[in-house]
Specification:
The protein has 189 residues and is of the alpha+beta class. Helices cover 36% and strands 32% of the residues. The termini are far apart.
């Protein structure tokens, strides 16, 4: 019967000694889960909206166009004064760097873009509301093609792989044209 107090004391010592090890093991497991979550987050590709925002942060002004080339986005930004423009490269992680800059341009060339009530971000949002999917490119069009006034041409790839060009009016934000471009040979309707 004298053994019972010694056994209890030995078990208590083992539990006290193992407590910090168990806590460290638990903390280590939590850190591993957190690191995995962070890695998964940083591996996510930057979408068109994120690329436009990153480009404007690097070079403030007005997005004129953007398109995806593999894992990077090429974003053309017109400076706030309309006299300069820059191509900004945005990586899949959202890092932006200037590739080319053109200064001394005629401010009148970008007058309609600068005056547009609907900018690139709103145009992409409106196009995605009309045609769900992912934006693959965006272009400012002030050529009045097909009798359509200043508008944004937004190319969207749907979940089934079809590509659709959606025109967004630069004043109202409404869809002015929508064309199908069947990449996979199927019928887009």
């Amino acid at each position: 019967m004298k053994r019972t107090p010694y056994v209890r004391a030995a078990v208590s010592v083992v539990l006290l000694a193992a407590g910090p090890v168990a806590a460290a093991t638990s903390a280590s497991a939590h850190a591993a889960r957190t690191a995995t979550a962070v890695t998964a987050t940083t591996r996510a590709d930057t979408d068109a909206q994120g690329a436009a925002a990153a480009a404007l942060k690097k070079y403030p002004g007005y997005v004129e166009s953007l398109d995806q080339d593999g894992a990077v986005w090429h974003v053309n930004v017109v400076g706030k004064n309309g006299k300069s423009s820059s191509e900004v490269i945005v990586s899949s992680s959202g890092a932006a760097s200037r590739a080319n800059q053109d200064t001394g341009q005629d401010a009148g060339e970008y007058k309609t873009l600068i005056a547009a009530k609907v900018g690139a971000a709103k145009a992409m949002k409106a196009a995605l509301a009309a045609q769900p999917g992912k934006v693959r490119s965006l272009d400012w069009d002030d050529e009045n093609d097909n009798g359509v006034a200043d508008h944004w041409s937004v190319q969207i790839k749907s979940a089934n792989g079809d590509t659709r060009d959606v025109g967004i009016d630069a004043t109202t934000g409404k869809v002015v044209l929508a064309d199908s471009d069947d990449d996979d040979g199927g019928d887009n309707g």
